[in-house]
Specification:
alpha+beta, Heat Shock Protein 90, two-stranded antiparallel ribbon, 50% helix, 18% strand
Length: 244
């Protein structure tokens, strides 16, 4: 079940491509078909997850909480996440007050298996309530893509350094989301290309995640994203969105 969570960033990228279908140029139309396939995938897995939750409820009394509890929690997180994405297809422009602390915690739960698999610690200290008035699915896309990217930064690290991803939220006239790692970092000559569509330095990367994240922030939320990185030292992404 938790392996399914590890697929979230890839499908977030694909779903985001579908949501931008009216903005794509002719050479990018293949993204639409990929997005449709992803949507179908989410629909197909939602029913068995619901069935699994019902089954877990029936056996809840027969097994210790420490065994059933994590399985139920993981299943619920996947189901809720899929429902948020499905809703975004029908209400793509729905705007509401989003609890950014809650989105961050849920995103970390979604990425938990990937972080454990890569032995990366996730650091987030919840602060005072921070709300942002925007589309919920778009905030999830930003958060999950940046966290996933930070975890991936350790793929080539084997020097024994402590692996961590730190998420910091700040609020004044702007909402700021900072995602930092001490992974492989980015070479100076590559930084200018890091947000280019289909550009990737990862062995198994798609080159979609960061470019789509930048599009959401700048075009949909009228914000900005900055990057500070030093090769072999780590990377900091900072997202800034106007606090309406």
């Amino acid at each position: 079940m938790e392996r399914l969570i590890n697929l979230a960033p890839t499908f977030i990228d694909n779903l985001g491509s579908l949501s931008l279908k009216n903005k794509l140029r002719n050479e990018d139309k293949h993204y639409i078909e990929v997005g449709k396939m992803s949507c179908s995938f989410f629909h197909d897995i939602l029913n068995p997850i619901t069935g699994l939750l019902l089954y877990l409820e029936t056996v809840d009394q027969k097994f210790p909480t420490e065994i059933i509890g994590p399985a139920k929690e993981s299943s619920k997180q996947i189901k809720e996440f899929i429902q948020v994405i499905q809703k975004s297809f029908h209400q793509e422009d729905e705007i509401k007050n989003i609890d950014l602390n809650e989105v961050t915690k849920n995103s970390l739960k979604i990425m938990r298996y990937k972080s454990l698999q890569n032995k990366v610690s996730m650091v987030f200290i919840e602060k005072d309530q921070i709300y942002i008035k925007t589309n919920e699915a778009k905030i999830y896309q930003i958060m999950i893509n940046l966290i996933s990217n930070a975890i991936d930064s350790y793929d080539e690290i084997c020097d024994g350094r402590k692996k961590y991803v730190s998420i910091i939220l700040e609020s004044d006239e702007n909402i700021r989301i900072k995602v930092q790692d001490n992974g492989i970092g980015i070479k100076t000559e590559n930084i200018k290309s890091i947000f280019n569509k289909l550009y990737t330095t990862k062995t198994h990367g798609t080159g979609i995640g960061l470019s789509h994240t930048k599009d959401i922030i700048e075009k949909d939320l009228q914000g900005e994203i900055k990057i500070e990185s030093e090769y072999q030292k780590g990377t900091l992404f900072e997202v800034s969105i106007k606090n309406h």
